[in-house]
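Researcher: For the record, we're logging two predictions in this thread. I'll number them. Prediction 1 follows.
Model: Prediction 1, sequence and structure:
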Amino acid sequence: MLDLSLIIPTYNEAESLSELHAQLCHVLPPQGKFNAEILYIDDGSSDDSYSILKQLQKTDVRIRIIRFPKNMGKTIALAQGFKLCQGNIIVTLDADLQNDPGDIIPMIEQLNEKVDLVCGWRKIRKDPWHKTIPSLFINFVIRHLVNLDIHDVNCGLKVFKREIIKKFQLFGKQHRYIPLKAYFSGYYITEHILNHRPRQYGQSKYGFLRFPEGVFDLLSILFIGKFNRSPIYLFGGLGFMIFMVGFLILSYLSVGWLFGQWISSRPLFSMSILLIIFGFQMISIGLLAELMLNLFSPDYEPPYDEIEPGDEAK
């Protein structure tokens, strides 16, 4: 087993690859402290990225190249890298040179028995507004809905223990939320302020249109993370509130009916019946989800340490 695996998704970054690898070799020299591998995931590049990677591979035996025949997206590229990597510590890094490889070693040093993942924080971010504003919104929502005090969950530079990737799968474009998925799996997350740099070559592959996708992925992860073991709390809670609103309206109308008021033609009467039915359906969905969870879900095993007699608890 290797000490370290660097996973670098690459899509049309031919201009930056040689400089990036030179910086990596300066930070992580071939005969250095870490026995490392460097996985470049060529995500269907249409420029000279693959040929440059082949040339770099001749000069550095640590390089492994995984090439997709067409662009599959960053999530699939990272997932494939996680499947093939061999290091005890995993580093994800973008190939656009905006994140400084010099931050990798300090982030590795932050890992310990209590810290499982270190997420980069682009505190002074050198990006246009259409990338920073959506990111600020997403991170604001996460900090206020989840007890996870991370300022930049979508940063491409992350360092974490290998065991984390065994606890979840990535779907859609959920690579943005690896820290959030790790948090819901029971791991401890911290962050490191990065030396973020402006983009030197080419153009960003992501635009403002990815914002709705990010919101949908976030909703999916929040739902699964919070309610994957107890869906009745969500569906049952919403259903009970809706049912009670309908019941209270119907009770109010029933009191009027007892005093001679005709209620069947009132819109409130129809609405109360619909709310009661809809609330009951929501509760039923929650119960069915609980039934399916108990029938088909494997037993959940959180990360833990077993303290033997005589050992000191740390």
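Researcher: Logged. Prediction 2.
Model: Prediction 2, sequence and structure:
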Amino acid sequence: MNKVIQFIKESYTEMTDNVSWMSYKEAQDSSILVLVASVVFALVIGVADWAINFGLDKLYQVLG
């Protein structure tokens, strides 16, 4: 049990003293960047899906 308590104490010390946390502004900027990148990626995938679906529908109409 002593090892568990020691681990928790060391973990707390590591998180409070040695980890460099980003500022609120940096976290906000990173979140906005991830949101914009996700939307752009979703749009690209959506357009590609639509184009493939459209192309296959036309191909099936010609062949069928």
